[in-house]
Design a protein that fits this description.
Elements: H1 2-10, H2 13-76, H3 79-98, H4 103-132, H5 139-225, H6 241-250, H7 257-297, H8 302-317, H9 321-339, E1 344-346, H10 347-365, E2 369-375, E3 383-385, H11 389-401, E4 408-417, E5 420-427, H12 434-444, H13 454-466, E6 471-477, E7 481-489
Helix pairs in contact: 2-3, 2-5, 3-4, 4-5, 5-6, 8-9, 9-10, 10-11
Length: about 500
């Protein structure tokens, strides 16, 4: 490194600038090359994978859409529905034919599946067109219709199988890209660090051999122009043009050193004063920010409730009963969540929150969601923990009912047995596999991954904190639904309980 610096100090400024420019250009070229590689990976390869997935999905969507149009035509047999069916059939044909029918591109399995789809759809199209143009009173009409229904089921199964194969092969292709995706940034970072280190080193040498002497000369020149001749000699290790200039400049200045010292002290005092002014301005800015934050915190949460009440009143005046009910339900849930600080509430309050929450969900999902509560106890004569029922129902909606196309039902059953209160929230959703149920149960027992079943875990830990004998039982059937049963001591508000019961 010492020989390199010695060589650097001897070469001309022009050569120094050329070397620095060359290194910068090399760094830019390396960045461009790696950008091109990344574009190739993420824009072209990943785009091809996404395009294959998209086209496979379009085939399934088109087949499903045509089946819906076919059912509408069979139900109504109108000219308009016939036109819709023909349009859907054209879209299905375009979706199937738009997929590249290339063995090398598709592979053996996808090629065979796409061939089955094309062949089956061609045969299906003949029967479909024959049915559309046939006499609906003829005996052969029914046979053709049921044959078409059977063909539609096969087409849908072929389509879903094709999508599964496409996703599987796409995942395989993506996994093959992963090593390259990891390697390219690592190589790019390594090269960037090396080139950056070289550039920084050259920058420091240029700064020391060119910039610093120039700045020192400029500073010294300004002082001399102001009759300040008591300055230290300008130092430079360079033996280039700047080194010669510095040597000549040092021979031009020698005056009174005391005056230089006085000016230096004055400059330091000015700098300190500037720092104090900057600190003062920063304090003032912080005070202004704190005042603004205080003003924001003065907004009363009742503003939200009052606004919802005003909106509900306007909906009532305008005759929008559904809107009024939704606003009232939402307002009750907000007020209940924000204002209820008690550990226990009456059961009817929890059921009211659950009912309002399910009303809002029914407004969102329509007939896809049904809510069936069944309370076999007097809900105004039993205490339950706050915020227990609604989170369980929300889990059923989000993880059970929502992913299911046809929707489902949520059941809430409350009963009493042997001085125990049984609260069961059951859904008819997609359910969970055995592995997920085991992981959730382990999490509740304090074992395994605590990030699994966070909502259930929070409820369970709160129940165990309040009641030592509280239990939570999970029953699940994959594809049929999940039920969560909470077993609590029956809490009658008319009776007194000591701390041990709590």
């Amino acid at each position: 490194m010492g020989k390199i610096k010695s060589f650097w100090n001897k070469i001309k400024i022009k050569n120094k600038l050329s070397i620095f420019t060359g290194i910068v250009i090399l760094a830019i070229l390396v960045a461009i090359i790696f950008d091109a590689v990344l574009i190739r990976l993420f824009v072209i390869d990943v785009n091809n994978i996404m395009d294959d997935n998209s086209k496979a999905g379009e085939i399934v969507t088109a087949i499903d859409r045509e089946k819906e149009a076919f059912d509408q035509f069979i139900d109504s047999k109108t000219y308009e529905n016939k036109e819709i069916l023909l349009k859907s059939a054209k879209e299905t044909e375009n979706a199937i034919n738009s997929e590249q029918f290339d063995y090398l591109h598709l592979g053996e399995n996808r090629y065979a599946q796409l061939f089955s789809i094309r062949t089956s759809y061609g045969e299906y199209s003949k029967y479909r067109d024959q049915l559309i143009n046939s006499n609906m009173e003829s005996p052969a009409y029914i046979n053709t219709l049921y044959s078409l229904y059977s063909m539609q089921e096969y087409l849908q199964s072929y389509g879903h199988r094709y999508v599964d194969l496409t996703l599987k092969e796409s995942n395989g292709r993506y996994k093959k890209l992963i090593p390259t995706v990891y390697a390219v940034p690592i190589i790019a970072i390594t090269m960037s660090i090396l080139l950056l280190s070289v550039i920084l080193e050259i920058s420091q040498m240029m700064n020391k051999s060119i910039t610093e002497p120039v700045l020192k000369l400029a500073s010294a020149s300004r002082r001399i122009a102001a009759n300040d001749f008591y300055i230290d000699d300008v130092e430079s290790d360079s033996k280039d043009e700047l080194g010669e200039l510095v040597s000549a400049f040092n021979k031009m200045k020698y005056a009174t050193q005391e005056y230089i010292d006085a000016l230096e002290k004055r400059r330091e005092a000015i700098e300190k004063l500037h720092v104090q002014e900057v600190e003062k301005l920063e304090v003032e800015k912080q005070l202004e920010a704190m005042n603004l934050e205080l003003l924001k915190n003065q907004v009363n949460p009742h503003f939200l409730f009052n606004t919802l009440n005003v909106i509900g009143g306007m909906a009532n005046l305008e005759g929008a009963e559904t809107t009024e009910q939704m606003i009232n339900s939402l307002s009750f849930i907000f007020r209940y969540n924000l204002k209820n600080q008690e550990k226990e509430v009456f059961l009817f309050q929890e059921l009211k929150v659950a009912s309002d929450y399910m009303y809002l969900q029914k407004m969102r999902f329509g007939d896809r969601v049904k809510y069936i509560p069944n309370c076999l106890v007097e809900d105004d004569k039993v205490l339950v923990p706050t915020f227990t029922l609604q989170p369980l129902i929300e889990n059923s909606i989000i993880h059970g009912i929502s992913p299911k196309v046809e929707g489902g039902s949520v059941y809430v059953d409350v009963s009493k047995k042997d001085d125990k209160l049984y609260i069961t929230v059951k859904d008819t959703g997609v359910g969970m596999d055995d592995d997920m149920v085991t992981r959730i149960q382990d999490s509740l027992d304090g074992k395994g991954d605590h990030s699994v079943g966070i909502g259930l875990g929070n409820i369970y830990r709160r129940l165990k904190t309040m009641y030592a004998d509280a239990k939570m039982v999970i029953d699940n059937k994959l594809g049929e639904g999940t039920s969560v049963t909470i077993i609590l001591p029956f809490r009658d508000p008319d009776k007194n309980y000591n701390k041990e019961n709590d």
